[in-house]
Amino acid sequence: MRQSPMEFLLTRLGVRFGEAGSMRIALSAADEKYESSCIENLGLADTTFLYRIGLKGPKAGQFLVSLGLPVPQEPNHWEPLDGGGYLMRLGMSEFFLEDGPSGTFVKYISEKLGPDGHAGVYPVRRQDAGMVLCGKMQNELLAQTCNVNFAGMDGSDRIVVMTSMTGVSVVMIQAEVNGEPSWKIWCDGTFGHYLWDTLLEIALETGGGVIGCARLYPELG
Known about the structure:
Blueprint: H1 7-12, E1 16-20, E2 23-28, H2 32-41, E3 43-46, E4 52-56, H3 60-66, E5 77-81, E6 85-91, E7 94-98, H4 105-113, E8 122-124, E9 128-134, H5 138-145, E10 160-165, E11 168-177, E12 180-188, H6 192-205, E13 209-210, H7 213-216
Parallel strand pairs: 3-13
Antiparallel strand pairs: 1-2, 3-9, 4-7, 4-8, 5-6, 6-7, 9-12, 10-11, 11-12
């Protein structure tokens, strides 16, 4: 079993747990009405359970194209994948993929490349903590934690933001998750506990809080 760095914090909040991606996950908050209010105002979900992989190398882009994947033409942009996933181009020869709950691209790529990769294409193990931020007060939280003008961004541009949030290096994209305008956030797993705790504290102060993964991905039940 994999373990999220936020599991202990979620246990203390009394969420309803389930299992997905070989990980114990928070399916829903203890109170359904409270959770609905959080989604509207400022909700935070732990999505570390989703599978992800990095790729590097001069032929990494060519390899992804050969698989029929929608590869972004420019660095710091992303494209959606079938099954609710994302393909991000972090540099000319560096990529980051995350599957949705029903996606299989990460597993397929991992099996095709093996542990050592091919000539010019090398897999990178990603042990990120993953989070989703949603609700009408997203920009207020982001303004407190980052020095990027998120309010001026258009999600349709599909930009990948690499910045610092409360002193933690993060990768972020603006995307709809189950119809909710959201920010997807990834950071090094060793900083996940700290970043989550900080963001949740701000969310609680503004009438928000934790939401379960089943509200973002209904197929989880």
